[in-house]
Design goal:
The chain is mostly beta strands. The protein is built from 1 helix and 20 strands.
């Protein structure tokens, strides 16, 4: 069973309501007439997690490599999330139904599909959809043979995070205390803005001429802030880093420098 016709009306949009029934659901790995079509490789967002903020659109591509003795006509891919292929909570389709395909060898082609996610529309009220998504992929040969797989790969859709660092005072005498504060926030798709992210471990790093060195790891409070007191003996630059989670992307703050005359 193929899903191309069922997907046509929803191209370019994320369906957030639960969908049921075979017409909307992905299908298991399958091949069409002739059984000679093969999907040989798929690349999603250059191998990186798909990170989406609270307002800016996110563009990414899915590249499908396939082969068939008759040649490849087109390829298709989409992302879905749910408890099973019969109970889907969300679907993300490409901007166009068919990929842009280029022959790479006799009987082989590379097809690219472009996706756009607008968090203010596609992800509104959907923080729960951050995490692992399944990739459906399909390739069609020029003789109408095809191959498809509804769970080709797990892809992570993550909420963007941002981290700020502030030092006070910004100029001190050698050995005097300086408070270096982190402010961690992440995209809140439910509310359409960034929100404080508490209970997370952030790491203060310093650099005073060489490479970055970790100073101390602390957890953010309910307001997303954490503070470490340092006593620099020379002019030093500080920053905080955050390692991320399965649903939130890692991030590093811009550096701030404390001058020591």
């Amino acid at each position: 069973m193929r899903i191309r016709a069922a997907a046509t009306a929803l191209t370019g949009a994320l369906a957030l309501t639960t969908l049921t029934g075979p017409a909307s659901a992905p299908v298991a790995a399958a091949q069409g007439p002739g059984a000679s079509t093969r999907i040989t490789g798929v690349d999603v967002n250059a191998g990186k997690d798909i990170v989406v903020g609270s307002t800016a659109k996110k563009h990414f591509t899915v590249s499908v490599r396939a082969e068939d003795s008759a040649g490849i006509r087109d390829a298709y891919a989409w992302l879905w999330r749910g408890s099973s292929a019969e109970h889907i909570d969300g679907m993300l389709y490409p901007d166009t139904i068919e990929g842009s395909c280029t022959d790479t060898a006799p009987g082989a082609a590379l097809c690219t599909l472009r996706f756009t996610v607008d968090p203010t529309l596609d992800l509104q009220g959907s923080n729960h959809l951050a995490g692992g998504w399944q990739l459906y992929v399909e390739a069609t040969a020029r003789d109408d043979g095809y191959a498809s797989d509804d769970r080709y790969r797990t892809v992570r859709l993550k909420r963007a995070a941002r981290l700020a660092t502030d030092a006070a005072p910004e100029a001190v005498r050698s050995g005097k205390p300086v408070k270096v504060t982190a402010d961690l926030r992440r995209a809140d798709w439910n509310k359409g803005r960034d929100a404080a992210y508490g209970g997370q471990r952030v790491t203060l790093q310093r650099k005073d001429g060489g490479s970055w060195t970790s100073v101390k790891s602390v957890r953010t409070g309910a307001g997303g802030e954490a503070t470490v007191t340092v006593r620099p003996t020379r002019t030093t630059t500080y920053r905080y880093t955050y390692g991320g989670t399965s649903t939130t992307a890692p991030t590093t703050s811009a550096p701030t420098t404390v001058a020591v005359p």
